[in-house]
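BACKBONE GEOMETRY TOKENS
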Amino acid sequence: MELTTTPTSSPASSPIPIPQGESPCLTRRKFAMEMEVLNLKIISQKSLLGNIQRYPQYEETQLFQIEQNELTILEAKRDQMVSAFQSIDPCEIIGCPHHSHINLTPRQTQ
């Protein structure tokens, strides 16, 4: 059996097409996993930029600007995914453990 994918909203507002017949719970779970990976990438990118800036001979080189642009792209993608996540229908299972406490913003590292 082959599932076809159709976007539930316009491609600009939903970065992930949702297969027909997929439950909102499964869709939320997939988004949560992707958001967790994206949050880790954002944290790592911020850490990288912070470490570069702490270097004694730090200069805003082209390489630094490329890394800064990458952070901007990751943050924009996160914002887009948060909007798309909020448009997914709620799960029909009350108290579903798979998405009842999803954190959509990156954790701060110390």
Notes: The chain has two helices and two strands. The longest helix spans residues 24-54.
